[in-house]
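Box 3.1. Reading complex inputs
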Amino acid sequence: MSGSTQAHIGLHLDSPDQSPPEDAELGIYGFWIFLMSDAVLFALLFAIYGTQLAATAGAPGPAAEFKLGPALTETVILLTSSLTYGLSGIALKYDRTRTTLVLWLGVTLLLGLAFLGFELHDFATMFGDGATPDRSGFLSAFFALVPTHGLHVAAGCIWIVVMLIQIGVHGTDARVKLDLLRLGLFWHFLDIIWIAIFSIVYLQGTLG
Amino acid sequence: MSGQHPSKGAVLLKAFGAAALLSAARAVSGGSGAPRPDRAGGLSDGAAEKRRDLATYGIGYALALGLTGLAFVVVTWGWAAGTTALGIVFALALLQAIVHFRCFLHIDLRRSHRDDLQLLLFSSLIVCLMVSGTLVVLFNLRMRMM
């Protein structure tokens, strides 16, 4: 392994001969702690969703409202965006020029926006069916859980735009690299949350 | 969630099969990286490492797509009924989360990653406590209101 110490999680940018600076390791660990607290938030939203599954109160229920087609499309889009983000990280690590990095970041941004578009379209359809958050406990819990993930993805998209601007202004200096690593953790984390959403919300809802 | 007892056997079988798949993938990704120390040239060393990084993401993406597809297929084509299907879906989701942690977030059991892993496990403990507390309180409340 030529002495490469994996000091922090995520992709490693440093070549084995230069050890990562102490604050980079700490900064990424701190961000990991934030992500875990975010995971607790999502877990509790899932728990509340679980308790409200039967509380449809005459409003449209899970079997009527959830369509697997769009859910699968959104899943594949988000999964692919995770891969393209990984490719941008590899470009950051190995390429001398910034073209590939910016290209893959752009693709990831487009996929994130496409995901949000599909999700908003889903919500619009549900609203059209009269499935609004105020109708039942189930719909309240649904619209607390899934749009929270959507908001996170939107924040991630804004973050990508900010990083693109920073790459344009500062180049890929140490600070920008650290932020790109953190953004990567955030983006992959959102994908893991989405696994839970399509399994617990969409697939379980369709099973009835 | 509600009882998965009847499907326990199927879930276990599924979990073992996929765990074998995962370890095979790990062996493959580890295997391609094994002959690295023999090479002296810095350039080929970097190329090999790049190929290994790419392979990690590629394998992760393929496994994740496969597990997602399997979960959707089980539900759409009705391969299993109610609770069994639910158990299979949850088991597949858990496996896919592990694939993401391993291939995208690069968390493994190496010693230098123990801090991250410990934080992950501690968070899981907190989540278990808070979620089970929430479930007990809210279900109890619902029972009293019925």
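In summary: The two ends of chain A are 50 Å apart (CA to CA).
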